[in-house]
Each structure stands twice: as C-alpha cells, then as structure tokens.
Amino acid sequence: MDKLEWCFSISNGITLIEPNENLSSAYFSKAENALVAMHDITVREWKITTAYYCMYFSLYALFMRLGLKMKSPFSSKPV
C-alpha cells in the first residue's frame, strides 16, 4: 500500500484518463506475442526479458482499459 501512496504523491504519477479499448487491445496483443516468443527462445537471459515485457504489456493493457495513465518518476515523459 505504501508504494501506491508513493505513486499518487508524484506529480501526475497516476492520472485518470478516458479508457481506451483499442490501445488496450494493441498492448494485450503485444503481450501475447511476447509470450509466444518466450516459449521459442532458448537463451535464458532473453527468455527472462520477454517474460518481463509480457507482464509489462499485460499490465499496461489493463491500465488502458481502466483509464489509468502512469508517469515514470525518473522521466518527465509519460510511460
């Protein structure tokens, strides 16, 4: 819970936007592609990398469906 409070304390860390089903579907498709690639890759480091991106794209797809926008605390650009 402390981490969520931290996100909300950042200037524009998490903001509400209009839910976007098209963008959500596109990111979910990217997550599926990463999952398929993960099963085909044999090098452990790349398997871990594709697993990370599968989770990242899945979470981002969910956020777009819910209408949540995140901003990285390490950058002035929205994620």
Account of the 3D structure:
With 79 residues, this protein is mainly α. The chain has one domain (2-70). 65% of the residues lie in helices and 8% in strands. The chain has 3 helices and 2 strands. The chain has a two-stranded antiparallel sheet. Helix 2 (21-40) runs antiparallel to helix 3.
Oligomeric state of this protein: single chain
- Rg computed from alpha carbons, rounded to a whole number of angstroms: 15 Å
How many angstroms separate the termini? 21 Å
Category from helices, strands and their pairing: mainly alpha
Task: Sum up the structure in keywords.
79 residues; two-stranded antiparallel ribbon; mainly alpha; 3 helices
Concise summary:
This protein has 79 residues and is mainly alpha-helical.
Which helices and strands occur, and which strands form pairs?
Blueprint: H1 2-9, E1 14-16, H2 21-40, H3 44-66, E2 68-70
Antiparallel strand pairs: 1-2
Helix pairs in contact: 2-3
